[in-house]
Each structure stands twice: as structure tokens, then as C-alpha cells.
Amino acid sequence: MGKEIALEGNEAVAEAMRQINPDVVAAYPITPSTEIVQAFAQFVADGKVDTNFVAVESEHSAMSACLAAAVAGGRVMNATSANGLALMWEILYIVSSLRQPVILTLVNRALSGNINIHCDHSDGMGARDTGWVQLYAEDVQEAYDNLIQAVAIGEREEVRLPVMSCLDGFLLSHSYELLEVETDEAVREWVRPYQAINPMLDIDNPQTFGPLDLYDYYFEHKRSQMEAYPPAKEAIVAEGKRFGEVFGREYGLLEEFMTDDADLIVIAMGSTCGTLRDVVAGLREQGVKAGMLKLRAFRPFPAEEIAGALAGASAIAVLDRAASFGAHAGPLYHEVTSALYTFGEQIPTNNYIYGLGGREILPEDLQSVFTDLTQVAEDGQPVEPVGFLGLRE
Amino acid sequence: MSHYPPDAKWHEMERGGIIPQAGNAEEYHVGGWRNEHPVRDDESCIDCLFCWVYCPDNAVYVKDESVKGLGFSAEHCKGCGICAQVCPKDCITMVPGGDFEDAGDEPEEA
Ligand code: SF4
Ligand code: SF4
Across the interface, which of B11, B15, B20 has its CB nearest the CB of A160? Predict the structure, then answer.
């Protein structure tokens, strides 16, 4: 059995990394993810892990070193935030193209400018097309659990994709919460040993990685990469179930909270789901048929599952903790409404952008969303395309 | 011949776009890129093999640690001129025109 202790989100992530004991960690510090790497470096210095820790001069180098170590055949982990992720951009695509299951903890933070170190999802949303699996955590327990599952999901034979395990900067990374930390043996047994496919260090079978790939084969290679994502979706469900069987906490692509008979459903990701959960429960007591759809896996995007979970609602709101400049709404709204359209659901859907740069989101803000939705349900059309929560206007 | 037949379908690709086969650069022909070609003056050549080491396409023929009397691979020389640049004796000249005779790595009959 594990033990219940209080840890900050970053400490919980570092603890999971220690238990996983990866072959290589190459990282560069950036707020609010710095503590993860700092704590892990201490584990390395104290001989508590067998990891080869590579201190590098930038995030671009960090992800490059991670890629190289993964191609060589190692289990590789890393952590970053916002501008650090932006500097990794080029290599993020190469890691997924080469089908290397590198595990990155992304402590979500606003991208500059102006400079802001607090939470929003602009970093993760920007990386949505990089080919990485993305999981978003609601609380510290889930951040810990997700990182362990990320290893098993990414390393499944039919998947072999990199995974970003995301947690909200400061709101989770620097908040102490009570969580269940499992034993080292149980975690190591659960993640299973890693066996790389076609490792470069297999010198008896020399291969070429990342060759020039022009109009004659590149398209076929990209198409074959797309084939990894449906199994990744299945892997998230299967590993979430296996995690539940062993540790008692089961996870899926999304969580439906009081949605079964709900008229008004709000969709969100990350720590806001905790607040939303309370607001929904409160509204239920007042007789409002409210529900929450928590999205845990943003990539691969569970379009069909979302449309299925929302079918039957009379009004929906999508909460975006990021803006998509020049688009008519936030990134999550686009994905959700596209899913509804594709799977034949015609439900009026509001979009709200909130929490940019760490702006607080209060229960009153979320209650106002349900008040809007009552109107939307009556009118049968959205109040306005995009609303803002917590903005001085 | 490349690793894949030219009509290979997407589901026949190797995972991660790797080439699981060594020495495949030989199958990559860049001769068609060339608009000038190297010509060596064997008189001043000292067989230092710089040209052979630096050529990015393994297009410099060498035999028994000597390039003398041998030419360049018409299939692999892309006409970049690196061999001429690195030669310490300036004995390689880049001559306009892509065409040249490829005599292979067998020395020409005297
Ligand atoms: S011109 Fe370039 S490709 Fe041709 S032999 Fe010289 S170095 Fe090699
Ligand atoms: S670099 Fe010049 S001198 Fe050296 S082997 Fe080549 S041609 Fe001869």
C-alpha cells in the first residue's frame, strides 16, 4: 500500500520520476517547472536513481538530448513550461515523427509577451499539432498518477509516441495537496521495463534515423504516423483502467460529472474542473440540471466520445484557458464544436476565454456561465460567440 | 534501388521513417544535381586523401589508399566543389558542365 502525504504538484511529479527511475533526464530550468528538475537533480546527486542527468544550455538542447537518448534506446523524461516549450518546438515534431516515447511534464504557464509566469494553457494548446499525446490534470494526485500512466501509454508497442503530462502552473505545481503516493516497487512494477524498438545502440543492426525525406516518401511517412493516434486513445483508456485495478483510481479520456441527465454542460480542462465540480454540485442542489465534462486527454482528441457525452444537452459552454488569435473562438471550442458537427449533434455552444496569465477563476464566474446557458437553452442559440470570465470590461 | 519500391504505400513504411539498412547512401544518386564536375591533376596530387574524406557523397574513388589514376563517381558526385576547396595542393579544378566519363575504381590502362 502507498501512503498519504502532502506534496506540492512539482514535488509529486519529481517523486513519480524518482519512482519511474528513467535512463536519461535532460532539462533546463524555467518557472514554474524548475522545482521538478531541481528535486530530481538532488535524487541523482544522492544516488537515489540510476538516471544519467544531462544539464544543458537551453530547452532546445534539452529536447534534442532527450531525442538522442530515446533514439539510442533509453527511457527519457524532462520538464518545462511556456517559453521553454516554445524553444523545444522544432524538436517536439521530430520526437513524435521518430515515434520516441519521451515523457515531458508541462507545467502550464502563459506564453510571453508580456512576460507572465502564471498559469494558462497557451503553451499546451500551441503544441497541439506537434504529435504529442497530451493529458491534463485536475489536481496534484492526478498529476502524479498521469505521469506514471504517461510512461505506460507512450511505451505501448502499437503507440510509441511522446506524452506531455500537463498540470496548471502554481495552481497545482506550487499547491500542497494530500495525495496517495504508491510504493516504489508497485510503481516500477506497474510501468514495466522498457524495450526500445530499433534502438540506435543496437550496433549489429545499423539504421538511419531522420534521413532526408522529400516528396517521394514524406507524405506516406506522415500518413503512417497518423495511424498511431487511434491506438493511443485506446491506450489511455486501457492503462487508465489498469491503473485503477492496481491503485484504485481509474482514469479515462474524459470524466462525465453529473452529465447523464444534464441540460447544461460545461467543458473544461485542468484545475478549473475542481471549482467547476463544486459549482455543478451546488446547482444540482438547487434543482438545476447542470453537468461538467472534464477533458483529460486533449491529444488524441476524443471527438466521438465528447459528442456522445454531450448528446442530449440543451446548451453547452466550452471554457478555454487560451486564446487563438485571429480565430473566431478559443482552441478547445473549435475542437468541441467540430466534434459535435462531425457526429451530428446540433447543440448551441458558448465559448468563454478565462484565466489568461493566471487570472483567477471564481465560483461566481462559473455560476454566471450556467446562468447564460439557461438563456441559451431557452433561445436555442448561443448568447454571443465568445465571452470572457474575470476580465475587466 | 532505394529501400522502398517507388510505389510503396503508406502502410508499408517503416515506423518513424527510419531506414533499417546500412550503407544506403550508395543508393542515393545526386549526380543529376551537378552543373560542374571535378578534374584532378595527378601530377601534383600527394594522395593525402582529404578529397576522399571531405566529399559528402562518397564520390571520390580510392584504391589501396591512393586516388591517383582514379576518377569520381558520376552517380554520386553532385558537383559541390568541396574536394577542390579542401585539396592542399589545389590540384582539383571544377570544370563547367555536368557530364563526365565515370571509369569506376579500376585504374585506367596506361
Ligand atoms: S564535387 Fe563534391 S560531390 Fe563531387 S567529388 Fe567533389 S566533393 Fe564529392
Ligand atoms: S586532396 Fe588533393 S592532394 Fe589530397 S588526395 Fe585529394 S587530390 Fe590528392
Answer: B15
Domains of chain B from N-terminus onward: 29-96 (3.30.70.20)
**pLDDT averaged over consecutive 10-residue blocks of chain A (393 residues)?**
95 98 98 98 98 97 98 98 98 98 98 97 98 98 98 98 98 98 98 96 92 92 98 98 98 98 98 98 98 98 98 97 97 98 97 98 98 96 88 96
Q: What ipTM score was computed for the predicted complex, to two decimals? A: 0.86
Picking from B18, B21, B78 by the largest number of A CB atoms within 10 A of its own CB, the best residue to mutate is B18
Residue A228: give its domain's CATH number: 3.40.50.970
CA atoms within 13 A on the CB side of A203: 0
Length of chain B (residues): 110
Interchain CB distance below 8 Å, B10 and A207:
no
Last residue of a domain, one of A202, A221, A247: A247
Residue A163: domain span: 3-247
Residues B79/B47, Cβ–Cβ less than 8 Å: no
Kindly state the greatest CA–CA separation across chain B.
54
What's the one-letter identity of residue A297? A
Point out the residue among B6, B11, B21 whose CB comes nearest to the CB of A224: B11
Nearest CA in chain A to B4: A217
Q: Which residues of A touch B11 (CB under 8 A)?
A: 224, 227
